Amino acid sequence: MQSRFPLPKFREIKTPFYYYDMELLDRTLESLSREAGKYGFVVHYAVKANANPVILEKIRNYGLGIDCVSGYEIRRAIDCGFKPSGIVFAGVGKSDWEIELGLDNDIACFNVESIPELEIINQIAASKGKTARVALRVNPNVNARTHHYITTGLKENKFGINQWDLEKVVTSLETLTNIKLEGIHFHIGSQITDMQSFRNLCNRVSEIMDWFTQRRYNLRIINVGGGLGIDYQYPDANPVPDFESYFKVFRDGIKLGEGQELHFELGRAVVGQCGSLVTRVLYVKEGVKTRFAIVDAGMTDLIRPALYQAYHKIENISSSAAEEKYDVVGPICESSDSFGKAVSLPETSRGDVLVIRSAGAYGEVMASQYNLRPLPHCVFSDRV
Questions:
Q1: 109, 274, 333, 378: which one is catalytic?
Q2: Is 265 marked as binding a ligand?
Q3: Annotated binding-site residue? 227
Q4: Is 217 strand, coil or helix?
Q5: What angle do CA 299, 303, 309 make, to 5 degrees?
Q6: Which residues cross the membrane (predicted)?
Q7: CATH 2.40.37.10 domain position(s) in the chain
Q8: What is the pLDDT of residue 142?
Q9: Does residue 265 contact residue 67 with C-beta atoms inside 8 Å?
């Protein structure tokens, strides 16, 4: 039984719900700010990981910028008090209204992924009498060695500009008078735990920086994206990511010139471990060879196991009996609505409270109302 979870209080709260450990979020943000601050690195929080306003308020208080991938996220960031001067806007398919929103709010930078996008941004900026600051998202063709759904830096991905197209892109920039090139941007994927992938990224970034230097482009911003993973297997052993090693890789691997800044866009590493999905057992069903713990949370509340076959540690905080194996499944009318197969849990009964760990990133924010289910509500440790 985990003392960090207030079981008596949980018994009183309607499930399913997300529970956020705000003290752990503070510890994570303190570590992140300290380690990035050693080198003067600039960190933008990737709001797609978790857009809860209470979480965003906490992050804003630590002085982080914001990485957005939609106009709706830009609106949320501004509504939550983030300064437009700290907002960067990425995404392979920016709509006209989203570009206009960014320009109207004078955001820091558009991370641009194609020549057609550059041309449209230039056209819209010209119609408003504005100059759009942009960074070119370049595909470094570095394999992040993660799930293929969340690998984004390979040449066959839909994201970014391939290196062999750079000459064509910079030539087009000469004719786009309402565009200002501020830097280059990279992002190779998500849930990366092998630091060698980031070392490989540094090598490729350095090569591309040299390519621009040789052509006399003065790049102010080198944005290496994010991707740092968390420990889903052992969340208690490693509740805060190893930001020290992560940032040191980039300090050692990228040599900045005068006036250049190194930017990061971290999401999962910031919020992943502070969130848990809390659910209640509805039934224990005996199958032919399998015992099912059927819970009231479903893939509508946490889709990662169904979408990515992702692992989340599951705990029964109501029982201390001997352990047995269960398939933990939800109530949705889909066979993929499963949180874990052959999960070792203390003997489990109807009404027991289960906690699905490491759900602070890509959990609540990806919830849906399939089967007309309501969105899960949220409980915060400092407000229980």
A1: 333
A2: yes
A3: yes
A4: coil
A5: 110
A6: none
A7: 7-17+273-383
A8: 81
A9: yes
- Residue 323 counted as an annotated binding residue: no
Q: How do residues 117-176 score in pLDDT, each as one tens digit?
A: 999 999 999 999 999 999 999 998 786 555 454 444 445 556 789 989 999 999 999 999
Arch. (CATH architecture) of 22-270: Alpha-Beta Barrel (3.20)
Residues of the chain with CATH 3.20.20.10: 22-270
Q: Which residue matches tokens 């933990």?
A: 328
What is the reported pTM?
0.94
Judge whether 308 is annotated as a binding position.
yes
Tallying the residues shown for the chain, one arrives at 384
| Residue 378 a catalytic site member | no
Instruction: Kindly tell me the sign of the dihedral angle through the C-alpha atoms of 212, 217, 219, 225.
Output: negative
81 assigned binding-site residue: no
CATH architecture of the domain formed by 7-17+273-383: Beta Barrel (2.40)
Q: What is the pLDDT of residues 14-63, one digit of tens each?
A: 999 999 999 999 999 999 999 999 999 999 999 999 999 999 999 999 99
Residues 6 or more apart whose Cβ sits within 8 Å of residue 141: 153, 154, 155, 162, 163, 204
Q: What is the mean pLDDT of each run of 10 residues along the chain (384 residues)?
A: 78 97 98 98 98 98 98 98 98 96 98 96 98 96 56 57 93 96 95 94 95 94 97 97 98 97 98 98 95 98 96 97 97 97 98 98 98 98 91
Number of CB atoms found within 10 A of residue 101's CB: 20
Residue 91 φ/ψ, nearest 5 degrees: 130, 135
Q: Is 57 annotated as a binding residue?
A: no
Tokens representing 51 are: 């857009």
Nearest to 241 by CA among 261, 222, 208, 266: 266
Residue 384 one-letter amino acid:
V
In the prediction, which pLDDT does 154 show? 45
Is 86 marked as binding a ligand?
Answer: no
